[in-house]
Specification:
176 residues, alpha+beta
Length: 176
């Protein structure tokens, strides 16, 4: 009969949990059905145009975070975005000299594979900002619920992330 010590049992449990998490990873990452996406398309993939896209992204995100941080529903978020399109245009005008176009409504998103997850192409509720000719790569994220705005906002520096299984293991090891 084989006897396993506590450390071996814990390692086996951790390995099993990691295997389960890795196998279920794709199921856990999902864009909510009722969401609003944002997409910013660069003029080109030249370094100067990519830098312009990043500057526009940062400035537009700041404004959108302020606008949407208190939105409780998708309809409220849509209303706030719609009533502030002129303000967003001014922010973009003050950020770049490139001509640009803003489209808010149902916009086309191409198929995207990001970190092993496939995001289907299609028409989605979205805010799309096209810089210049729009021949460059794009950046996109989920605007509402504010998945990208929360992770990029400076106020999230104080957020503490915890891993439940690690807490249990730490608790078990300290209570030997």
């Amino acid at each position: 009969m084989i006897f396993l010590n506590k450390k071996t049992i814990i390692l086996i449990i951790i390995a099993v949990i990691i295997i389960i998490l890795v196998n279920n990873k794709q199921d856990n990452i999902m864009i909510p059905k009722e969401s609003i996406r944002i997409r910013i398309i660069s003029n080109s993939n030249e370094e100067i145009d990519v830098k312009e896209k990043v500057k526009v992204k940062k400035n537009v995100e700041k404004e959108l975070y302020s606008l949407l941080k208190s939105a409780n529903s998708i309809d409220e978020a849509k209303s706030l975005i719609n009533s502030n399109l002129d303000k967003l245009n001014i922010i973009i005008d003050n950020t770049t000299t490139l001509k640009h176009d803003i489209s808010f409504g149902y916009n086309y998103f191409p198929k995207k594979i990001y970190k092993g997850i496939v995001y289907d192409e299609g028409l989605y509720d979205s805010l799309v900002i096209t810089l210049g000719s729009g021949n460059g790569d794009n950046w996109w994220c989920v605007l509402f619920p504010p998945l990208c705005l929360l992770e990029d906002n400076d106020n999230t520096k104080d957020v503490e992330y915890k891993f439940f299984v690690k807490e249990i293991i730490d608790k078990y090891l300290t209570n030997k």
